[in-house]
Every structure is written in C-alpha cells, then in structure tokens.
Amino acid sequence: MAERCLIALGANVPSGMEALERTLRAALDRLKTLGFQGLEVSRFYRTPCFPAGAGPDYLNAAACVNWAGTPGELLRMLHEVEAEFGRERVQRWGRRTLDLDLIAMGGRVLPNAETQDAWRALPMEEQVEKAPAHLILPHPRVQDRAFVLVPLAEVAPDWVHPRLGRSVIEMRDALPEDALNEVVAL
C-alpha cells in the first residue's frame, strides 16, 4: 500500500548548464518517470543559504508523493536522482546542485522514537559536525526550517509530526517571523 511521502527539494549551484529552476523542474520530471504517484509540488522559493555563509542562496520547493516501497528504497532513488544532476556529497550542508531530502513517510518514526527524539534535540553545534548513519524519519530538523515548512504547507498542510503532534501549518506558524520572511516565493 502506498504511503504519503514528503520531500524537500533544493539547489544552490547550477547543475552543468542548467539554471536552478530548470534543475528542480527536471528533477521533478525524473521523479515522475520513476513511478511516483500523485506528485504534488509547491511553488519555488528563494531562501538564504543555511547555515549562513555556506554558499549562494537556494531555490527550494516541496513535493508530496505516494510511494509503495520501503523508506530505504525511496531514499536510494532520491540519491540516484541527485547523482544524475551532479550532486557530490563532499561537505555537510555545503553547496548542492540538487538536494532531495526525505522529510516524512506517512506517520513512520525511524529507526525508533528514542533515536528520532535524540537527533531532533541535538544542539546546533553538534548538528554541523554529526550526520546520522541511518535514515531518521521524520527528518529531525523539519520543525526548525522555514525553507522546508513554508513550501510544505502548500502540499501537505495537514501532515502531523508523529512525535510532536503538530501539523505542518502549526510548526510553520511557530517559527520566528524573520525566518518566515526569508522564504520568498518566485
């Protein structure tokens, strides 16, 4: 049975000769060819690079798809599409030709509630240095990131974080106004 999956898209470095918007659109077209059903996509947004000073501004969007495979299979497919567009995993939170983050898969909590909670509570200085060795769902930073929540509110406003008990809209509205104002629709 297919599950509702939330994906954040971003790019801040052109892939080959492609402009950022063309890269995101081409990546979305590629996802359609891979069997994703019911693809819904937000508008595109210009956002500052995170963390500040790590590179040029981003173009971000969010997508909602139905997927019947496993989380690991989905993540592998997303990484393959990133690689097709020149993504190299050299630096954590570095420049990216394409970033496809699996934010959530239905109400799943992976690998377990304790691990998800621990990564969600990780202090910022440790977030920069540490990366999980396995998939964590929901994405442990979703509740903190306007560049994810603003576009996500267009395609999955009612999705509820299974550990926080808050919807996308509630998480978005809890963010500081200055963070929300940095996410500018094209």
Compose a concise summary of this entry.
The protein is of the alpha+beta class and 186 residues long. It has one domain: Alpha-Beta Plaits (2-Layer Sandwich).
Number of strands: 6
What's the CATH topology label? Alpha-Beta Plaits
Task: Sum up the overall morphology in one term.
Answer: globular
If you compute it from the alpha carbons, what radius of gyration comes out, rounded to the nearest whole angstrom?
15 Å
Q: Which structural class is indicated by helix and strand composition? A: alpha+beta
So how many helices? 7
**Poorly predicted sequence stretches spanning 5 or more consecutive residues:** none
Could you characterize what this model shows?
The mean pLDDT is 90. The relative contact order is 0.20. The protein has a single domain, classed as Alpha-Beta Plaits (2-Layer Sandwich). Strands 1, 2, 3, 4, 5 and 6 form a six-stranded antiparallel beta sheet that branches. The chain contains seven helices and six strands, in the order E-H-E-E-E-H-E-H-H-H-H-H-E. The N and C termini lie far apart (35 Å). It has 186 residues and is of the alpha+beta class. The longest helix has 14 residues, at 20-33. The radius of gyration is 15 Å and the shape is globular. One of its GO terms (molecular function) is ATP binding. InterPro entries: Hppk, Hppk_sf. Pfam families: HPPK (PF01288). Residues 7-157 form the 7,8-dihydro-6-hydroxymethylpterin-pyrophosphokinase domain.
Chain-wise SSE layout:
Blueprint: E1 3-11, H1 20-33, E2 37-41, E3 45-47, E4 58-67, H2 71-84, E5 99-105, H3 113-120, H4 124-129, H5 146-155, H6 168-173, H7 177-181, E6 184-185
Antiparallel strand pairs: 1-4, 1-5, 2-4, 3-4, 3-6
